Amino acid sequence: MHSIFAAGDVLFSSRCSRNSRLIRFGTLSPFSHAAVILDESGLVLEAVPPEKSGTESDSSNQSFGVRTQTLDEFLALHDEVWLFRRPIGLTPEEAIRLKQAGLAFKGQEYDLPSAVASGLTRIGLVSLTIPAASLIWKLTEFGPQPGLIAIGAALVLPALLLRVASTRSWSHAAARALRLPNRWRNKSQGQFCSRLVCDVYEAFGEPLATYGREPRPKDVGRALKSKGFVATRLEPASRR
Fold it and tell me: Which residue among 47, 127, 168, 201 sits deepest, i.e. has the most Cβ atoms within 10 Å of its Cβ?
C-alpha cells in the first residue's frame, strides 16, 4: 500500500534512454511519459508503444497499448518520476467512477503517428512558418517572386501535412477525399500516454483544457496545475 498515492493522481516520468530523450526533445516537454493512478492500491493505467514489448514485465498479458501495471512495476522502469496530486481527494463513489472510466480504455491500441505528430506539429508550425513569413514580407517589399513563393510553400506544406495527419477528423476527411485505404487513417480508438490521461478525465467528467486533440505531457501538466494539482518529485526513498 502506497499511502501517498490516491485515485486520480497523475504520474509524469522520464528515463535515461535514447527514446526518452527523443520524446522529450520532439514534444518540447520535460517528461517523456504520463500515466494515471486508478485506485489507492497503486493500479496504474498507461499507454505504451509496441517497441517496449519484451523489455518490460508487467502483471498482465498485455505488453503494449493501453494496459495496467502495479505502481511498483511502473516506478521501477523510470529514472525520474513526478507526482501530480489532486488538491481535493475523490470521494469513494468518485474514485470508483474514475477507475471504471479508466478501465474502459484498457486494451486499446497505441496510436504512434499521433504521438509523434503531437511534437512534430509544434516544432514544424513554429520553425517552418517563421521563415515562410519572412519570405512573404520580402514579397511585399520587392513584388511577386516565383522562386520565393515556391520556397515558402515548401516550408509551410510539411507542417500543414503533419497537422492534418495528427488530427483525427482531418485525417479521416482527407483519406475519404483521396479514397485511401483504411490503414492510412488514424486509429479512431488509438491512444498515447498524454491523450489517455486527458480521455480518462474527460470520461470521468472533469475535462482538461489542453492544446488541441494531441496533447503533450507538458500540456497535460499545465492543465493539471491550472486545476490546482500539486507537483512533487518522487525521490527513490519515497517510492517504496
Answer: 47
pLDDT in tens, 143-189: 556 666 676 666 666 666 655 555 555 555 555 666 655 544 554 56
- Residue 46 buriedness (CB in 10 A; 0-12 / 13-18 / 19+): buried
Can you tell me whether residue 19 is helix, strand or coil?
helix
Q: CB 76: neighbour CB atoms within 10 A?
A: 12
| C-beta of residue 79 within 8 angstroms of C-beta of residue 30 | no
Measured CA angle at 111 (ends 163, 157), to 5 deg: 20
Measuring CA to CA, how many Å separate 218 from each of 56, 134, 177, 189?
25, 29, 34, 23
The per-residue pLDDT for range 78-117, each reduced to its tens digit, is 989 999 999 998 999 999 999 999 999 999 988 877 776 6
3-class DSSP state of 90: coil
Prediction pTM value = 0.71
